Each structure stands twice: as structure tokens, then as C-alpha cells.
Design the sequence.
């Protein structure tokens, strides 16, 4: 008897999970989806009802201290991978015939540089966060021609990108428009810029969307990028926003009142205030390295900050996790503004 | 934590399309890889446990070392092998469920083999003597042994399944956590954590644990039936 009960219980649980899944799959196909959606709607309204009290209790203590400085410009570029690039395998031997979907990469880049995509990107987040997350560069290259539709061979586009454009929700918001219009499927791998570029060098991406000028230039110099027809440069910079220096509201280092960002960084270092570094060779990490006073000699190498470990924290993880750490440790942190705004918006529910 | 629990319930009830996709990829991956590892590993384990030959101890040591292989290393090896520049790059397997299963089989197989070997070593002597007394052939002895192990095979399967569904290092390397394609529960949890959305991560974790619970209940019930 007991055994039967256990079986029944297990089956009931399975059934509830699977029937729940089935409903949604049917829902878009059938027009009268009202019935199936209703219970979900109820549940959704119930949950937030509990939350306001919590949201008030947990206020994100990390705030933006320094922004919109010329030094804090964060430019995003898109680069197409050259199938003829000097690919090498793990032993450094040259490899030929690496498969790269050039037609797909062309289409996606052309679309990203079209008026439609630029408008979508510029509008992204305005409603949700009441702030501009990404600005379109005024001198950005533009594309006005016809974009090729997907064929069986070019359908899948492998985009290797940085966490900031993916985690801020930008790609999730704009790419479905491209996929729906032209029939492509974009497979997004997101990692820090360093890793994103490494994936392309290993022949695992058709194009990259990154934000570290020096690393992009090295990528071009090594011959991994190609120039699209009708464009002048391999590096097509089209979006930008600002890095922001964030820290606890109390601001013990007085970063907010520093004349420039460099001074703010110097004040943090002088006062030995906790600073969270991405430490993962990402675009943000590269930018942060460039902002420290030169005499400290901080670079990406762990030896370079071995003497500063009491305050310099090399987290070696994603932006969101680093922000969490800064919040916990009441430390300072450099982040792109888009991720910070999404972090604050998400963090209200912790 | 309370909000995470509410989120988990809301997430299941809302039957979010992406969640369903993540669940189905997770199920496909972990069931295939654990079953393949079981089918390959059980005969090898029984053979290793019941026979004596030269070099056996070396094989055992190698197997036990592989049982402790870090998933990330396994993932990295397969990433390099199946990269565009790697020797198998032309197959275009990277970032597919297929290679996730392959990497997991390599991870889980030694565990299945090691588990079966340990058990069979304990019972092999008696079973072999019985078989000899009955005059059974080599194959029949093998099946007799297998029959004696059914309970252990169920437990081993649970172990393999648990390892497979909870593993994140290898699948995030070779799968790339691509939404709608290779994103599984564990990589999705990692992703939400990286976005600073801890409560949604915990919500997904709770769902994962529930699935594990269901599978465990089912197999445990089966195991008791067999044992009667």
C-alpha cells in the first residue's frame, strides 16, 4: 500500500510538471489562451504583493559615484571573423579550413548597423530603467542595402560576446527582431571580452561583439578579422555607454568629490579602500587597469597586485557577481552602466 | 529564501517557455549520458570485478584516478578537441547537446565502473563457485552475476544520474550555455548568479532538487520491488 502511494505521488508530481510545460507550448498556437494564462497571472500578482515590504528593507547601498567622464567611455564594436585567419591548434600548428559562417556574420553585422537595429538599441531600457543604457555613436558606420535572408547553410550564426550586452538584456531584446525578419538563429555565447575573443580565435565564433579597444586592435593586427564589403574598417564601433565608478553611499574615499576619475582611483588606492576588480581579462577589467595611478603598477598579472591584496580584490568572475561582492564588502567597483542599472533593478528582490 | 521559494512555485506554474526548454535539454542530456555510461560501465565493472588478470590493478588505479577527474578539465579537453581549430572541428559538434552528453559519459563512466567493480568483487567468488557447480558456461556465469547485481545497478544509476544533472563545469565549457539550445539547469543557475539575480538562481535550484527527488523516489521504489 505504502509503495503504491509513493508511486502515485511521484507520478502526480511528474504529471504536474509536464502538463504545466505542455500548456505553454500550446498557448501561442491557440488563440483563446486566456484560460491557460489566467492561473499564471493570478500567481504573478500574488507574489509581488508580498514583496514591497522586502524591497523597502533591502536597499542597494552601492551607488554611482563618478560617471560621464571622457575617460569612462565604453565603446562596443562588432568584428567579423576571417575564415582565412591564421588559426592555430593547441600545439601552435597552423590549421586550415576552419568553418566560419561568413554570410551569416555579414547579415547580422549589416542588420546591427541598420537604422532599425540602432533605434531599437537606443530605445532599449528607457522604459524599464528610466535611463539610457546604450547610445548609438553618431559617426557609426551605417548600412542601408538589402540584407540576405537565411539559407539552410547560413542559418546558424555563432556570436561570441561580452557579458555586459547579454546580461543587460540588450541582445535578448533586439535579436529576436532580426531572427524573425531574416530567418537566422543567433547562438550567443557570452563571456568576458578576453574569453570572447579567445573563442573566436579557436574558430568557435562567426563574429564578436566586444568592448576593449586594445584587445580588438590586437585581434585585427593578428589577422583574425576581415573587412566587410562596403565598410572601411574591421572594427565597426556603433554603440557606447559609460563606465561608472560605484561604491558605498558613505563614500569613505571621497571619490564623488574627486576632480577626475583618475583622482578618484588614486584616493581609493591611497586610503586602501576595498576595491573589487573583475580580474578576468574582460573589457571592464582592461579599462579599470588603465585608470590606476601608474606608480602602483597594477596590470592583469596577479603578481602586480600581490602587495595590495588587503584592499585590491581580484574576483575573477562576472559583472553581476562582482557587484554583489562590492555590495557585501562595501567596496568600490568599476562597472558599465547598463549592467549596474539592471543589477539594481534585479537586486530589489533578493 | 522565502521569495526564492515563491519564485520557484510561480516559475513552475507560469510554465515559462524558456524554463521548459531548459528542463527538456537537462532531461535529454542527463538521462542519455547516465544511461549510456551505465550500459557501457556495468559490463566493464562486472568483468573487472570478477576476473583476475595481469595489469588488472593498474587498470583499477587508472579508473579510480579518472573517477576524480575535475569536470572543467574534461570539458576543456573536449572543447579543444572539438574547437574549430581542433582535430574534430569539422564535425561541428561544439555547443551541441551531443558533445555535452559525450563529455558527461567520459566523466561518469569511471564512476559506474568503479562502483560495480567494488560490489562484484565482494560477491564474485560465491557466484562463480555456484556457477561452476552447476556447470554453467562463461556467458551464463556473467548473466548470473549481472542478475545478482540488479539492486546495485539501480543504485549506481542513481549516482550516475545525480552526477550528470548536478554537473556544471564540463557542460558549461562544451555547451556554451546557449539559450534555447544548450542551456541546462546548472548553467542557467550560473548565469542568473552572474547577473546578480540570486533568488531566481535559488528558484531554479529548488526545481532541480525536486526533479532529483522524483527520479530518486521512482528508482528506489523499483529497487524495492526487485529486491522482494
Sequence:
Amino acid at each position: 500500500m505504502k509503495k503504491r502511494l509513493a508511486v502515485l505521488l511521484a507520478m502526480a508530481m511528474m504529471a504536474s510538471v509536464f502538463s504545466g510545460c505542455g500548456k505553454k507550448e500550446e498557448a501561442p498556437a491557440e488563440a483563446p489562451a486566456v484560460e491557460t494564462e489566467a492561473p499564471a497571472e493570478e500567481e504573478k500578482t500574488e507574489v509581488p504583493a508580498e514583496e514591497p515590504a522586502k524591497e523597502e528593507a533591502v536597499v542597494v547601498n552601492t551607488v554611482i559615484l563618478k560617471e560621464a567622464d571622457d575617460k569612462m567611455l565604453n565603446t562596443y564594436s562588432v568584428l567579423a571573423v576571417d575564415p582565412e585567419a591564421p588559426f592555430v591548434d593547441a600545439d601552435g600548428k597552423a590549421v586550415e579550413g576552419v568553418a566560419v559562417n561568413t554570410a551569416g556574420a555579414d547579415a547580422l553585422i549589416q542588420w546591427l548597423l541598420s537604422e532599425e537595429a540602432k533605434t531599437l538599441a537606443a530605445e532599449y531600457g528607457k522604459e524599464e530603467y528610466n535611463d539610457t543604457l546604450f547610445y548609438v555613436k553618431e559617426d557609426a558606420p551605417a548600412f542601408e542595402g538589402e540584407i540576405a535572408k537565411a539559407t539552410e547553410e547560413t542559418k546558424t550564426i555563432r556570436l561570441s560576446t561580452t557579458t555586459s550586452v547579454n546580461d543587460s538584456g540588450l541582445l535578448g531584446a533586439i535579436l529576436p527582431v532580426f531572427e524573425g525578419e531574416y530567418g537566422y538563429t543567433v547562438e550567443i555565447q557570452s563571456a568576458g571580452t578576453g574569453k570572447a575573443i579567445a573563442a573566436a580565435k579557436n574558430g568557435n565564433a562567426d563574429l564578436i561583439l566586444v568592448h576593449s579597444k586594445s584587445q580588438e586592435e590586437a585581434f585585427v593586427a593578428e589577422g583574425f578579422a576581415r573587412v566587410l564589403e562596403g565598410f572601411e574598417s574591421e572594427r565597426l564601433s556603433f554603440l557606447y555607454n559609460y563606465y561608472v565608478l560605484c561604491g558605498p553611499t558613505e563614500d569613505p574615499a571621497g571619490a564623488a568629490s574627486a576632480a577626475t576619475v583618475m583622482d578618484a582611483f588614486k584616493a581609493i588606492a591611497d586610503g586602501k579602500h576595498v576595491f573589487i576588480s573583475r580580474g578576468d581579462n574582460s573589457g571592464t577589467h582592461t579599462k579599470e587597469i588603465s585608470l590606476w595611478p601608474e606608480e602602483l603598477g597594477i596590470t592583469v598579472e596577479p603578481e602586480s597586485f600581490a602587495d595590495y591584496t588587503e584592499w585590491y580584490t581580484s574576483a575573477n568572475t562576472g559583472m553581476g557577481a562582482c557587484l554583489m561582492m562590492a555590495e557585501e564588502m562595501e567596496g568600490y567597483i568599476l562597472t558599465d552602466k547598463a549592467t549596474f542599472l539592471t543589477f539594481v533593478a534585479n537586486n530589489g528582490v533578493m | 529564501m522565502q521569495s526564492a521559494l515563491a519564485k520557484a512555485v510561480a516559475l513552475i506554474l507560469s510554465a515559462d517557455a524558456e524554463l521548459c526548454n531548459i528542463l527538456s535539454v537537462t532531461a535529454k542530456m542527463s538521462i542519455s549520458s547516465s544511461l549510456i555510461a551505465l550500459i557501457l560501465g556495468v559490463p566493464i565493472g562486472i568483468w573487472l570485478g570478477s576476473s583476475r588478470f595481469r595489469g588488472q590493478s593498474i587498470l583499477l588505479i587508472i579508473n579510480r584516478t579518472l573517477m576524480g577527474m575535475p569536470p572543467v578539465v574534461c570539458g576543456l579537453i573536449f572543447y579543444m578537441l572539438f574547437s574549430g581549430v581542433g582535430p574534430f572541428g569539422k564535425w561541428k559538434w561544439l555547443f551541441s547537446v551531443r558533445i555535452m552528453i559525450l563529455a558527461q559519459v567520459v566523466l561518469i563512466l569511471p564512476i559506474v565502473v568503479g562502483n560495480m567493480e567494488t560490489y562484484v568483487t565482494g560477491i564474485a567468488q560465491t557466484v562463480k563457485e555456484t556457477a561452476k557447480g552447476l556447470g554453467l558456461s562463461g556467458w551464463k556465469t556473467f548473466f548470473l552475476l549481472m542478475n545478482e547485481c540488479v539492486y546495485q545497478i539501480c543504485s549506481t544509476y542513481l549516482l550516475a544520474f545525480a552526477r550528470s544533472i548536478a554537473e556544471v563545469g564540463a557542460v558549461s565549457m562544451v555547451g556554451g550555455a546557449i539559450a534555447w539550445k544548450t542551456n541546462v539547469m546548472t548553467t542557467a543557475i550560473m548565469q542568473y548568479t552572474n547577473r546578480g539575480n540570486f533568488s531566481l538562481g535559488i528558484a531554479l535550484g529548488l526545481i532541480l532538487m525536486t526533479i532529483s527527488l522524483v527520479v530518486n523516489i521512482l528508482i528506489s521504489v523499483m529497487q524495492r520491488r526487485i529486491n522482494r
Q: What stands out?
A: The CA atoms of residues 9 and 119 of chain A lie 52 Å apart.
